[in-house]
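for the record, two folds in this file. i put them one after another cuz i was lazy. first one right below, seq on top, structure tokens after. the second one comes after a little note so u can tell where it starts
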Amino acid sequence: MNTTLTAKNDLITSIQIDIVKADYEDEVKKTLKQYQHKAVLPGFRQGKVPFGMIERMHGQTVKLDVINKMVSETLNNQIIENKLDIIGYPLPDQEKEQVIDITKDDNMTFYFEVANKPKLDINFSDFQVIKYNISITDKEIDNIVLRLRENNKKDDQLPELNEEFFNLIFPGSDINDIDSFRKKIYDELDIQYNKESERMFYNNAVDTLINNVTFDLPDDFLKRLIIANSEGKITREEVDQNYEKNYLTGMKWQLIEDYIVGKYPELAVNEDDLRNFVKTSYFGHLNNDTMDDEMKERMNNIIDTVLKDQQQRSYITNQIISNKLTAFFNENLKVEPVNVNYEEFMKATMPELAKKEEVEETKE
């Protein structure tokens, strides 16, 4: 068996695989012998069915399976041995693809293409990204206190601002005066605002990198890859219509993210990251040293169960990588702090809200 790699251009590498009968016939015979050993047919004891009959019944199927396996393994080995950093997986080369008759052809040639990942070199300090610092006003605290009281009315009467009410809102916090109560509200709001600010900063950073880091992509190959992944559910026409809007942005970000994690391996998500995330989500910052063996076992069983769910595992992985990248962006991008209150933050980050208010003001 011979393989030939040819660079079509910087983005596409062609892989040619030449297979002759001698490459696969021994494996085909070996597999058919295994079939013969297990075969049970009327008039024959197990293992005594003539080989010629087994070959007529299963020969072409086995030949196809063996050749497909050889081609798949050869492609994979070529990618590894030649250290090809590719997008997706190999696709048949449409320019050279031939019709092969497995029942007649002994010697076959297969042509494939792989898309090479673009070589990126990003200087993150070149990119400036806004980060909103959201202030909390006394008026906001006043409104929250009033809303909490209204939500806990009894017999249409607002509750008194006393220790009983404070601990109803924040059980176990041991708050006994209005200043401590307001401070607790402030702290909770500050945590919420910081989360929203970090989330918006991350989104802005991703958009900035996607829009400003330029590199070429093999669009035709990627379109064929999208169609192949859809298993026939998407047509070429649909891909052409939606490629830039629905697909290209996501692929560009995936390549940029792969570049970042490849250059900074500490950002990769490992099993400890996953387990610690689940532990914190379910058990808070519980100290392992304070747990007995039974409690540790119960906790580990819960973590195992959560991470066995592939949908949950994928969601948690995405959360962790977002958190790690947010920290990375804070350290490596040029951060432009902008001080706003929450109303200003909402208008700046949700233009549709600002437009709606402008329309309403115009009507008035």
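(here's the note) second protein begins now
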Amino acid sequence: MSQTSPKITVLIPTFNRENYLLQCLDSILAQTLQPYQIIVVNDGSSDNTREAIKPYLPQIDYTEIEHQGKSAAMNCGLEMTKGDYLWIFDDDDVALPDALERFVTPLEEYPEYDFSFSTFYFTQSNAEDHSIGKIINEFTIPDLETRGPLIPLLEASYLCGAGLFARSSCYDKVGNFDPALIRTQDYEMAIRLTRHFRGIQVQGGPTFHYRQHQGLRGALTDRFQSDQIFRKWLQYDQITFKRLYKELTLDEYLPPGYSLANHQRQALLQRMAIMAGKLLIPEVTSDLDELKLLNDNRPFTKHEREIIAKLVVTTPWYREGKLFDSLSFQTGLNSVLFTDQDRMLEITEQISQMVQENKVQSKIELLECMLSFSEPKDIFDLMLSLIHNKEKGLFVS
């Protein structure tokens, strides 16, 4: 780290969180590396936030705006930012004491990186005094080496809220937060940043407590209880991903080093799987139609089998079901593969041998194995039929 202290701005948008905001601020003021600037944007709170925050005014830049939602509050804060680095921090979370120091260190040491990211704790909140309670578990970041940072991010956000810390100049390039998004604004922004800049993971574990509580969420235009949060995440992620479906180039769905000329089918499969994870039926159907038009009937590669098997077996984290019910898909796959008795005996014998050799040890590996015997066109037809016929397990958004 340089001899002069890095200039870090911490931006805290807040709305009706007087019970949590002061703990949040105390955790920022207690950092081992003190921030250069703390901005609190009050998004038209109707509680006692204005009075509660008065003792902190000498230490923070405080402003109030008419209630417009979190995106508008963060955009207001972006205009006030003076630091070279920016950490956007939720008003109900609590930072660990060395968070800022650990976030900024790799960016100071390696100027080729533009943002850093970390894990965090999912932590309970004590209902009596609203203090931080028991740690539930630690968020884990997926493997980014094999497929690069973007594909896992499109599947599900691992750059969650205050888990991302960036050079302020990054926001100058990618623009403001989308005011149309009442939820998942940080996810949409994280995708923009990842497409344009390089990130580096912070070492040493979590940097903050992501508080779990029962309070109301959202702006006044779309206020909801905590038990509706997954449905709301899905609702606003679908807005984002309908747009991304049109904006992202097909090669962005490939791992680093892969060319679209040689891996167009894999790119289409990956995009289809990501859109299925967001339960976007028209986009999935369009990709399946395009896959059929490719007329590429080479056997599926290992990566392609992994994409399909994961899509079928894994339930999207929104907890709202999935497009392809495992049982329905398995039944359809059996009918495609086992066209006659001899074929069935041949395939089952080979699979049994692989099981005995411990090459197949899980449901997803079994499905990958079966896909290796299938014709791609048959699989695409099966998926389309499951969608069109609204088979058991199909989620209709």
